[in-house]
Amino acid sequence: MERVPKVSVVVPTYNRKKDVLECLQSVADTNYPNLEVVVVTNGCVDGSAEAIREAFPHFKLIDVKEGLGSAKATNVGIKNVSPNADYMFLLDDDTVMKPNVIVDLVKAIDDKPEYGAATVKVLYFENPKLVQWAGASVGLYTGINYMNDGLDDGRFDKFYDTEGGIGGTGLIKMDVVKKIGYYYDEIYYYYYEDPDYAMRIINAGYKILYVPTAKILHKIPLLSAEEGKKRWLERAHWVARNKIIFMRKHSKCFPIFVLLYPVWFLLYTYQGLRYGGRKELLNFYKGIWSGFKWSFFDYKKPIIN
Fold it and tell me: Could you tell me which CATH number the domain at 7-218 has?
């Protein structure tokens, strides 16, 4: 009999009952035959836990009463992955996967020891003809986030190596997980924990493969440029803080990043004044202070269990 690797799907959720039920239904409808599902309700007060327990009694539900943040909630799920799992698949609660996703990801890297993980093509739920991203990376000189995005017109239909896309849409070999450390670095709390984990995979000597046939729909709104800036400013503290922490941990060119940072400071100060308000701008400044304070005074190599 042909070996079928066991895949453990980890889905943390926070007050998105309708979305997470649709997400989990898409997991239940997958055509992969050897699957377990671990769901973490992260401080939910909208009845998510009860609804999940009723709709999917065969899934493993971890009901956490307090809000832990994205990194810690994901770690709770990872801690409950079966010890005999061959792969871990991290899935966001506002996504819907196509039935072939896990089959295609496992097939793409199972016999390729150089690959530690694989990721998918992410399409907008409200317009599946648009790619939100097809592989991603963070520039280790500038800190700029790069995403392959645009019209799904065939240019994203090739397999290629990427540096991101693990969190929320990534399949990871458990042998690699055991080597680099099971858990997300909780210093991030929210934002950049995903690219951090991807960089740990790459720094351990593995590649990450983008698999174009594995498609996931993401319920992130299509926003105008102005709306996008406002959305960013709502999260300015964590984005600013965690970008700096990520660069301190992973960039050999961190001094160059520091020298270039005044450009970011001026750019986002301008955008804050134009699209946000004093509160958002103050949160951005607090995030910068917190990020550089950690980088210069509190930095140490994290201990990953």
Answer: 3.90.550.60
